[in-house]
Amino acid sequence: MSSKKTDRREFLKQGAALAGGAAVGAASQSASGQLAGPETFIQGSDDMVAYGSRSRFVTSKRIPHGGRHSPDTFGLDFHIATPLQEQHGVVTPSSLFYMGTTRGSYLPDIDPDKHRLMIHGLVDNPLVFTMEELKRLPSVTRMHFVECAGNRANSRMKNVQETHGMTSNAEWTGVLLSTLLEEAGVKDGGEWIVAEGVESVKGASTIPMTKAMDDTLLAYSMNGEPVRPQQGFPLRMLVPGFEGIFNVKWLRRIKVVDRYYMTYNDYGHLTQDPATAALGYQIGPKSVIVHPSGDMQLPGTGYYQVSGLAWSGGGKVARVEVTTDGGETWFDAEIRGEPQPFAHTLFAFDWEWDGSECELQSRCIDELGQIQPSRQQAQEFWNTPEGERLRVRGQDNSIQPWRVHSDGSVHNAII
Amino acid sequence: MAAFIMRLFKLSIPLFVIAGLTVEAQSPTKYGVGRTPTSAEITAWDISISPTGEELPEANGTADLGAQLFLEKGCAGCHGTNGTDGIAPRLVKRDVGVLDNPWDYGRILPIRSPFATTVWDYINRGMPLGAEGTLSASEVYSLTAYLLYLNGVITDDQMVVDQDTLPTIQMPNRDNWAQVPDWFPKEPRMKGYPY
């Protein structure tokens, strides 16, 4: 297999050399002082007909999150972070989408023709759907991020993949859960749903009916192709703006119930502190500067476009502000494109770097008026005692500071 | 054709009998897509267990039997012979006496969980690793009882734990956890919190 590939590459090189030499124009055309073209070409082949691949010069990849090996000893814990630093738009490629799950390295290998979704419990009409039937129903296509509760930056992390890589954003197509619940007819008292996946542990989460009926989406398509197995093929529930664990993958069953069910997933999310419970539910306004960010190197003084991603579990991003002096003065960043609810939103800011040491930060203000806090603001709000290690309650949405040293190197500035 | 038959079913009256299984009465749906599951199908699929245990199957077990099963079913292989020293998560609280706040026993399911039903449910759906779904209901009751016994939640290893008694077992954190807030669209995540 690999030797065949090597042979093929050699062949391509030779072919390219021939083509380069024999070509009338392309590579050698420099009559008007243009740069010479690439030295080699990739010849179209039967292999390239069916499924494309990225350039061999593009090597961005996911990494295990939090310094722990994935999969772990059992092959269970699988937390892998997306390389945000390689991304310039708002769509995370499906192959690089983050993943966080506790039985994740055992992916259900589901034949979509055999997959069924059942809706039952406190409904007038229990229903079972095939994938084909779900695709017959009215669909919606929406951009939504998903973010893991573990997307929590600390001072030991070096780059944006480590600090913020446990969130990703995709275009999802599917049927609204409200469409199916209206078909089934929710009975009085149906205040919650329990959604369950097919994986070995049959992970289930309890979700309020208000959210289920509002915008919860059962997606079969992601970024223009079927949802990938790591993301829940063939059917994944998206609970926009809620913490990652609620977005049940490999969805097979929805039971309408009259109370909080305290599933194992719910238990895992459990806390004693009402504020932490509230803040670990709907995600707050959040943003991060991606270019430049930790581990990057500015080649010299002059112009840079500072850009990054902003999102909120409260809905649309209304505004993003950027500071280059560690929070003394804030400027409005430009929002690129039309912000979508519960979706990564691109922002950019024109910056002239004069070569002095400085600190870049961004903060997101969402359509509800919620403001992304600095770590210090969160600490002050909760009266965290001096000297006690700060832990932002619930989903950590605090501001990420990046320090640019005078040599152009960029570092995580969390203390 | 199948859809046509389904539609006929949906328009017809109260009860149908298909292959000996009773199907509940249907009211028409807007799209007429999807089919009605049989009650047997629903029962087979429905592994949810509520905190009050309505769905629990009729069966029973004891901690005494659970101690045997813990070894026989391979639990000890990953969780350690005593449930304390394996490579899998610890299942028994540390020897710290009785704490004022049971939350401080740590993230150990059979002591922290507010409801014993969650322990039953997790063993039933998720254990043993790689052989999920192979335990009988009685075995799940016995293993649940054993873990509760090891943590001092129940003190009699002969206590019969079944669909009626399991939900009544008083877990130390029964009322010692924070409810998630009522959720409504377009509202900040917590009143009075600007961030």
Characterization of this structure:
The complex is a heterodimer of chains A (415) and B (195). With 415 residues, chain A is an alpha+beta fold. Chain A has three domains: 2-53, no CATH class; 84-270, Alpha-Beta Complex (Sulfite Oxidase, Chain A, domain 2); 286-412, Sandwich (Immunoglobulin-like). Chain A has nine helices and 22 strands. In chain A, a hairpin with a 5-residue loop joins β21 and β22. The radius of gyration of chain A is 24 Å and the shape is globular. The N and C termini of chain A lie far apart (49 Å). Mean pLDDT of chain A is 91; it is low at 1-29. Chain B is mainly α. Chain B has helices at residues 2-11, 39-45, 63-72, 75-79, 109-112, 116-126, 137-150; strands spanning 16-18, 21-23, 60-61, 161-162. In chain B, β1 (16-18) and β2 (21-23) form a beta hairpin. Chain B is globular, with a radius of gyration of 22 Å. Chain B starts with a helix and ends in a 33-residue tail after the last strand. Mean pLDDT of chain B is 89; it is low at 1-25. Classes of the chains: A alpha+beta (415), B mainly alpha (195). Chains A and B meet through β5, α5, α6, β13 and α7 of A and α2 and α6 of B.
